[in-house]
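Repro:
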Amino acid sequence: MSGLSTTLVILDLLGIFVFALSGALVAVRKELDLFGVLVLAGTTGLGGGFLRDVLIGATPPASLQDWRYLMVPVAAGLVTFRYHPTLGRMERSVGVLDAFGLAVFCVAGALKASEYGLGPLPAALMGMVTAIGGGMVRDVLAGRVPVVFRDELYATPALAGSFIAVVGARQDLPVSVVAVAGALVCLVWRLLAMWRHWKAPVPTGVASV
């Protein structure tokens, strides 16, 4: 396995675990049973990568080829099901973990798309899809308006981090360097947005009828 492939797998698994935790916590708060918790954990952790792989032609998706991709969200779901009172009290920490997951996934998705021959902008878009796709499906299944459609800055940091990673990779910089650079941009932007309550623009006034 090449260095890039190994890095992508590690980033993918880290992102899956973090996102699966957030998905499982949403399920617990919706008072779903163990099966529901595991479904939302798996959907959140694997949804974005699954969609990315289908769109770039990396089929069957990695989550169906490597047992680790399926076991990681199961483990995260079981941990959340057992220790959800503790995780629930760590709301702010879970939000920070979600920001880490966003950063890891956007970079992993963008680099994989670039490896499959996509140009800088399409690869960056695939990185963003990887980062936000699972959360969107999670929110729809949980009956919530997806976070990415609200006024929070969520998708924009992911797109920026993805683009930096792709551009850096095309300059033949070390994979570890471009991965860290892209992830840091996404992470810092998202954390600042949470801390400073930065919002995306929303329409003003009353819509015409």
